[in-house]
Design a protein that fits this description.
Layout: E1 2-7, E2 63-65, E3 68-71, E4 74-82, E5 92-98, E6 105-111, E7 121-130, E8 134-142, E9 149-156, E10 167-168, E11 176-177, E12 187-188, E13 194-195, E14 201-209, E15 212-220, E16 227-228, E17 234-236, E18 242-251, E19 267-275, E20 280-289, E21 294-297, E22 308-309, E23 316-323, E24 328-334, H1 341-347, E25 349-350, E26 357-361, E27 368-372, E28 380-391, E29 395-400, E30 406-415, E31 422-423, H2 433-439, E32 448-457, E33 465-474, E34 477-485, E35 501-506, E36 514-522, E37 525-530, E38 535-540, E39 552-557, E40 563-573
Parallel strand pairs: 2-25, 31-33
Antiparallel strand pairs: 1-29, 2-4, 3-4, 4-5, 5-6, 7-8, 8-9, 9-10, 9-11, 12-14, 13-14, 14-15, 15-16, 15-17, 18-19, 19-20, 20-21, 20-22, 23-24, 24-26, 26-27, 28-40, 29-39, 30-36, 30-40, 32-33, 32-39, 33-34, 34-35, 36-37, 37-38
Length: 579
């Protein structure tokens, strides 16, 4: 173990407050995943560069990416992929397999545009295992230049192939076509199907009408003929289009996962949607009324922009599945690039998949908990440890002896009391946590916090991405702000680069006066899990100095209350095998 000097020099840096509006790019508009760059979508990659490529996060060797399945002991990752360029377009269903969710083997594409019902695109969908252990894929096909969307299916060509390399699209597609009540150009992403007590299959398809996002319910006796329900399964005003809906049960008793069709006692249900307008993932916890075939969120869950998020950072288009092999529910998401489209073309690739996460219902029954799958720990190599280390205001300590650009860090912070927590400004009540983080960044001295980690930092802190907590006193409770702030992550100064101060609040009691943090650092990705996974934030960053062996890792405190590092363990992480 090598721990460098304690220092307070960082806090001499100038304090720069960001505007407390959501940071946007591309002339004020956050890029949508379906934005078409006709002049670039088939442009060959200029040079596949490795400076910001990840070592243990999944990404193909080059070009652009965006439904998983566990079948006969093998994990299948189907993902949206542009085989011809590093921007969105030419989308097919690429296919990779794994036995551990970490090391992957690419196979030939599973689905690509080839027939009249998907001639203009094969967009997102889901996999379902039918009785008799028969897998089937439901996906959205684009049938014309107007982006008319229909729902199709595909099945394995050879069930005896353990890897299911080839898939066929039967000619009785499409299975579902939008009726006159549906916006046929905003009608996509069918969910994994579940079977009701009546023996009928059900799926949801995301859509929107008059700014009301909705999950449209379809039922089928035989999985071939689908009938739309008279009413939406769930909807909410002023939320825009609902993409990539996901619906699944969670246990009230333990952290085990449940099959999507399970509907026994002691469960809640979760409805997750990806909001096309904000580019964030939102979910509610609630009750599935099986008699009315409707979903009712609990009064502790809010639909829309003020609702709970799976991840408060760069995380979108996620999809969960039930892993019957280990009796757990796994979530996989997608993290887009935050640099420019031109940068993507130059470096030759765009998009990564965050580490798969096990998820379960918090004991409070109000929210989800997420944690990296245990298989990730097989990549841990050399480690360093630190314990009972005190940090006064303005002090930091460097963690040496590991590969700081590619690491896994777990730390528990403690503090003697809560008396120095700053009052929560009432004018922030209507702000998002991200806005408060932009005002109260890591260099803004506080009472209890900010304290945390400085990841992907250059030696003299010209660049760094801080992941930290700050505790506020708000009336009769404490508010815990968790931030992953990319505003100082790079010296690159392009006005179109997206460098937000991502943040979320952590719903945890502070009775033991401790907070835990885990950060997965991987060259251009920082995935962080606060309080055991109650709040998660993924950031994409592009340092120019803090790369490879020039990257550094620090723990810091910039609050008046002294912080103790109870325990800190940091591992160098090996590369995953992406054959």
């Amino acid at each position: 173990m090598e721990i460098l000097r304690k220092s307070s020099s960082i806090w001499a840096l100038p304090i720069i407050l960001l505007s407390f509006f959501i940071v946007v790019f591309n002339n004020g508009v956050v890029d949508a995943s379906h934005k078409v760059y006709m002049h670039l979508q088939s442009t060959s990659s200029v040079d596949v560069k490795n400076v910001h490529r990840t070592g243990y996060h999944f990404q193909p060797p080059k070009n652009w990416i965006n439904g998983p399945m566990y079948y006969n002991g093998v994990y299948h990752l189907f993902y949206q992929y542009n085989p011809k360029g590093a921007v969105w377009g030419n989308i097919i269903w690429a296919h990779s397999i794994s036995t551990d969710l970490i090391n992957w083997i690419p196979l030939e594409p599973a689905i690509y545009p080839s027939k009249v019902f998907d001639k203009y695109g094969t967009w997102s969908g889901s996999a379902t295992i039918l009785p008799g252990n028969k897998p089937v894929i439901l996906y959205t096909g684009i049938v014309d230049a107007n982006k008319t969307q229909v729902q199709n299916y595909a099945i394995p060509a050879n069930m005896s192939d353990p890897y299911l390399r080839k898939w066929i699209k039967p000619d009785n597609n499409p299975l579902i076509v939008a009726d006159m009540s549906i916006n046929k150009t905003q009608f996509r992403d069918p969910t994994t199907a579940w079977m009701g007590r009546d023996g009928h299959w059900r799926i949801l398809v995301g859509s929107v009408r008059n700014h009301r996002g909705k999950a449209i319910l379809y039922r089928s006796r035989d999985f071939m003929k689908w009938i739309k329900a008279k009413h939406p399964f769930h909807s909410a005003t002023n939320t825009g289009n609902w993409e990539c809906p996901d619906f699944f049960p969670v246990s009230l008793k333990n952290t085990d996962g449940l099959d999507t069709s399970y509907n026994g006692k002691n469960i809640k249900h979760v409805l997750k949607v990806s909001l096309d307008v904000t580019r964030f993932e939102y979910y509610t916890v609630g009750t599935y009324d099986t008699k009315k075939d409707r979903y009712i969120p609990d009064n502790t869950s809010v639909d829309g922009w003020k609702g709970l998020r799976l991840d408060y950072g760069n995380y979108y288009a996620s999809k969960s599945f039930f892993d019957s092999g280990k009796n757990r529910r796994i979530m996989l998401g997608w993290a887009n690039e935050s640099d420019t489209v031109d940068d993507d073309v130059k470096k030759g690739w765009a998009g990564v998949h965050p580490i798969p996460r096990k998820l379960w219902l918090d004991p409070s029954g109000k929210s989800l908990v997420q944690w990296p799958v245990e298989e990730l720990e097989t990549l841990r190599e050399k480690n360093v440890q630190l314990s009972n280390y005190k940090l006064n205001m303005g002090e930091k300590v460097e963690i040496k002896g590991i590969t700081a650009a590619q690491a896994d860090v777990e730390v528990i912070f403690s503090f003697a009391n809560l008396d120095k927590a700053e009052p929560f400004d009432h004018s922030w009540a209507d702000l998002y946590a991200q806005d408060v983080c932009a005002i109260k960044g890591s260099t803004v001295q506080g009472g209890l916090g900010p304290f945390g980690l400085l990841t992907l930092a250059s030696e003299n802190l010209e660049e760094y991405t801080p992941v930290f907590f700050r505790i506020f006193k708000a009336q009769d409770k404490y508010k815990i702000l968790m931030c992953s702030d990319a505003s100082r992550s790079t010296l690159k100064n392009e006005t179109t680069m997206y460098k937000p101060s991502f943040a979320g609040y952590v719903d945890v009691a502070l009775t033991d006066k401790k907070l835990s943090l885990r950060s997965l650092i991987d060259n251009s990705v920082v995935e962080s899990f606060g309080a055991g996974g109650k709040t998660c934030i993924t950031s994409r960053v592009y340092p120019t100095l803090a790369i490879f062996d020039k990257a550094h890792l620090f723990a810091f405190n910039n609050g008046k209350e002294a912080i103790k590092i109870e325990t800190l363990i940091a591992w160098s992480m090996a590369d995953a095998k992406l054959h």
